[in-house]
Specification:
547 residues, alpha/beta, 9-stranded mixed beta sheet, 6-stranded parallel beta sheet, 17 strands, 32% helix, 20% strand, globular, binds adenosine-5'-diphosphate, Starch synthase, chloroplastic/amyloplastic, plastid, starch biosynthesis, transferase, Glyco_trans_1
Length: 547
């Protein structure tokens, strides 16, 4: 430990230490073990174009950005031609886009409904190219940004622009760009409701305009938001939405009989795609059984939709998330050389002004603070940690963050065991994962969940509610053999169920440290990369791609 401490720039409590380098000189110890993502080359090289609202690292709000980035990068390494088409948000840090340059101007059809009539215009659109985190990107935006309010403001979502109008325009602009640049990708891979209109437009408009080769994959990362759209609003794509307003196509069935009836973009995306994936096998089952299907239940029950849905578990980007090479940490570590983890814990405790005890387990939650994530259970865990002599660190933001802000500023201000950080910070997230003994994910539902996997990669033990992808990735210590087990799970949505799993984990940490250290090493060695999942996606692409 002493050798490791050389070069560590110890933080002063109460400062934004995560914004400064944690080391003043390079790591003195070679911790080995960092996995690289060397991929097998696939025999057939496919042209894949993703349409997405997010792309890590610079246009990320949650897991969507990580997933598109990880999948795209891995498929590139497997020998495929992958491009990501995304909005050129005003808030993008342009200095972090390599080789950013203007590509072309295109005229994108756009419309609006006026007095029951669709008024058609075109919007001059500027297309830029660049590379984000190793992935080639095409960025589209109105050429004259001042003339319209699309993708403007200081945030990806919830900026000062109309999201529905912007994403409908984006779908049209992405397809128009493919047509104008004469591309014929094998696969259009769409993500979430924001890009679903591209499936409708492709089959109803662009397949008659010379785009013939693409087949469409839609990945549903979360069915919580499905994109509600009045028929007249669909005119933002430049075509009338009326043709989609049937039960078979995109009519939002819960609005039948209302005036006006609405479209549901996610429904249309499912109907018009050749294949539909969700981000874990269990979430796929939950969605198909109707349990998590919400208003799209009857659509998902239809055999022609049902039969094209499957679950492919997300991976994580093991180069981005690599404790052996992570430069944001005060010390690196691996399963073979775990000492640096203890130093990372001490560093975080010091920086956050917590008691610097190695014997108090640090329970961490890194999350969007929205109902899906089990807000009441996050709170219950905080108080349980207090009772059980553990430390609790929350990094989160979202529309349920008010109560946590209040607790952070009053009840737990300067508390020696509790720190509630109501904000978004990528670098602090790295430091918390590295310091955490336990990563808690008590979601009400969870399509896949990345934080339990990132936590494991950094040697933390997950405590999760057994739902969706959490059920696919976490195997309980008390019901699985050593080597197979990697965490603690619970079923119920009540505090008692959470306490059962959390208490077992805390007792394990306190009473069997050697076995805990082994469990932590097992987790660090677990294969969590995109290797396996990307092979599944490539197999799916091949199963639908034209020759
Ligand atoms: P979701 O996509 O529902 O938000 P996931 O678990 O799939 O949940 O992905 C969450 C991703 O966002 C992870 O990479 C996590 O580290 C990151 N994240 C969530 N909240 C924060 C935050 N407040 N600060 C930094 N990173 C965060």
């Amino acid at each position: 430990m002493r050798q490791l401490e050389q070069g560590v720039a110890w933080p002063s409590p109460g400062t934004k230490f995560w914004e400064a380098p944690a080391r003043s000189s390079p790591m003195p110890v070679d911790v080995g073990g960092g996995s690289s993502s060397v991929q097998p080359r696939d025999s057939r090289s496919l042209d894949v174009v993703h349409f997405t609202a997010e792309l890590a690292p610079i246009a990320k709000v949650g897991g969507l950005g990580d997933v598109v980035h990880g999948l795209a990068r891995t498929c590139l390494a497997r020998g495929h031609n992958v491009t990501v088409i995304m909005p050129f948000y005003e808030c993008l840090p342009q200095d972090q886009i390599e080789g950013l340059g203007f590509d072309m101007d295109i005229e994108v059809p756009k419309g609006k409904s006026w007095d029951g009539e669709i008024q058609l215009t075109t919007l001059k659109t500027a297309v830029y190219r660049g590379v984000i985190g190793g992935v080639p990107v095409i960025l589209v935006r109105p050429a004259d940004w001042d003339a319209c309010n699309l993708f403007r403001g200081g945030r990806i979502y919830g900026g000062s622009y109309n999201e529905l109008e912007s994403y409908l325009y984006f779908c049209r602009a992405g397809l128009e760009y493919l047509r104008c640049s004469g591309q014929q990708p094998h696969i259009l891979h769409l993500h979430e409701w924001q890009t679903c209109a591209a499936a409708l437009l492709y089959w109803e408009v662009y397949s008659a305009l010379g785009l013939y080769r693409p087949r469409v994959v839609l990945t549903i990362h979360n069915l919580d938001n499905t994109g509600e759209c009045r028929q007249d609003e669909f005119a933002f794509t430049g075509i009338d939405g009326e043709q989609f307003a049937t039960i078979e196509r995109a009519l939002d069935e819960r609005t039948i009989g209302h005036n006006p009836e609405r479209l549901n973009l996610m429904k249309g995306g499912m109907v018009y795609s050749n294949a539909v994936t969700t981000v874990s096998p269990t979430y796929a089952k939950e969605v198909l059984s109707g349990m998590q299907a919400g208003w799209l239940r009857s659509t998902l029950m239809r055999p022609e939709v049902n039969s094209k849905v499957r679950g492919i578990l997300n991976g994580i980007d093991v180069e981005e998330w690599d404790p052996a090479r992570d430069e944001l940490l005060p010390a690196n570590f691996s399963a073979q050389f775990p000492d640096g983890k203890a130093l990372c814990k001490k560093y975080l405790q010091r920086g956050l002004g917590l008691d610097e005890s190695p014997d108090k387990p640090v329970v961490a939650v890194i999350t969007r603070l929205v109902p899906q994530k089990g807000i009441h259970l996050i709170k219950a865990a905080l108080f349980r940690c207090l009772d059980k002599g553990a430390q609790f660190v929350l990094l989160g933001s979202g529309h349920c963050d008010g109560e946590f802000k209040a607790m952070a500023e009053q009840q737990f201000k300067d508390h020696k065991d509790i720190r509630l950080l109501v904000m978004y910070s990528e670098s602090l997230a790295h430091q918390i994962y590295a310091a955490a003994d336990i990563i808690l994910v008590p979601s009400m539902f969870e399509p896949c969940g990345l934080t339990q996997m990132i936590g494991m990669r950094y040697g933390a033990v997950p405590v999760v509610r057994k739902t969706g992808g959490l059920a696919d990735t976490v195997r309980d210590v008390d019901s699985h053999a050593p080597g197979e087990a990697n965490g603690y799970t619970f079923d119920g949505t009540d505090e008692g169920s959470l306490h059962g799993a959390l208490d077992r984990a805390l007792t394990h940490f306190k009473e069997q440290r050697a076995s805990w250290t082994e469990l932590s090493a097992t987790n660090m060695n677990t294969e969590l990369s995109w290797s396996r999942s990307s092979a599944d996606y490539v197999a799916l692409y091949n199963s639908i791609a034209m020759p």
